[in-house]
Design brief:
Oligomer: single chain
Bound molecules: NADP nicotinamide-adenine-dinucleotide phosphate
Largest sheet: 6 strands, parallel
Shape: elongated
Strand order of the largest sheet: 3-2-1-4-5-12
CATH superfamily of the largest domain: NAD(P)-binding Rossmann-like Domain
CATH class of the largest domain: Alpha Beta
CATH architecture of the largest domain: 3-Layer(aba) Sandwich
Low-confidence stretches: none
Order of helices and strands: EHEEHEHEEHEEEHEHEEH
């Protein structure tokens, strides 16, 4: 009898957790959830998982071979471009079908005062004219880009605290995990007298409330644009990813 098919899900997002919950009921499928290990208590269920980098493209190729992975789902955050690039190279080398699950970016709507920035370096330049109290909502890893802005005050929201020797901008740190809601976000911006927000264009609902609150308060948002994705098949919702996995299993079983 043929062995079950094995899928590796590169995760670390709400989308990946939802996908894993849905595909865990497919009988012919074994799932491995892969996390980078950035978050101390990741919100994940009981699916088998591995934590930590693979060791670049060659490490990922070795892992995919050793574990006899049949399908690769890249459900990482849209800003996690290194692992997505590695996944593209490794899957093409081993001819393993790969799907990217990418949530759509937020779109500017009427009332939004967005200033689009290509990356953090551009965002830093834009901040020169936007006031002195900034809500920095970009996660933990790129805070150092703002550390030299000693004349500004930052409200910094992250999931886990950074190591003690990290370079961070001056201000107040909040450690909180989303989802966040409109009323609370508006109160937060008002309480700390925030004048502008810096955000990644992450997409999804969990962190969108701050964008809505900024719109209502007429506040500028420096919106950091996504890095380009590698070539390959992609879907924007979990249901389509489930359908793709089922289709691929059928094809593999019948071939
Ligand atoms: P990245 O810059 O694309 O990746 C850096 C390195 O981390 C990769 O080369 C890989 O190491 C390792 N890595 C990343 N994701 C991995 C995964 N799912 N499983 C195993 N190794 C992984 O990624 P990042 O931006 O640091 O993000 C790391 C994780 O946090 C991802 O899982 C992502 O989905 C999640 N996340 C990122 C953001 C963000 O804004 N960047 C936001 C929310 C969640 P090796 O080269 O050694 O294999």
């Amino acid at each position: 009898m043929a062995r079950d098919k094995r899928v590796l899900v590169l995760g670390g997002t709400g989308h990946s957790s939802k996908l894993i919950a849905l595909i865990s009921t497919i009988p012919e499928l074994e799932i491995i959830n892969s996390l980078a290990g950035r978050t101390r208590q990741p919100a994940i269920g009981s699916t088998p998982r591995r934590i930590g980098g693979f060791g670049g493209v060659s490490g990922l190729i070795n892992y995919l071979r050793e574990q006899e992975i049949d399908l690769l789902i890249d459900a990482t955050h849209p800003f996690a471009s290194q692992i997505s690039g590695n996944a593209a190279i490794a899957s093409s080398e081993l001819k393993i079908p790969r799907l990217m699950l990418v949530r759509p970016p937020w779109k500017k709507v009427e009332g939004d005062r967005w200033i689009e920035a290509e990356n953090n370096e551009v965002a830093v330049k834009v901040l020169a004219n936007l006031g002195s109290r900034i809500f920095l909502s970009i996660g933990r890893q790129e805070l150092a880009s703002y550390a030299h802005l000693k004349h500004l005050w930052f409200l910094i929201r992250i999931i886990d605290l950074f190591p003690p020797d990290s370079l961070v901008p001056p201000g107040k740190i909040l450690t909180e995990r989303g989802p966040f809601y409109f009323e609370e976000e508006r109160s937060l911006l008002q309480k700390y007298e925030i004048e502008a927000i810096v955000s990644k264009n992450s997409g999804g609902d969990a962190t969108y409330a701050k964008i809505v609150a900024a719109r209502e308060l007429g506040m500028p948002v420096v919106m950091i644009q996504r890095p380009p994705l590698p070539e390959g098949e992609q879907v924007s919702d979990v249901e389509s990813a489930v359908a793709w996995i089922k289709k691929m299993i059928k094809l593999m079983i019948n071939s």
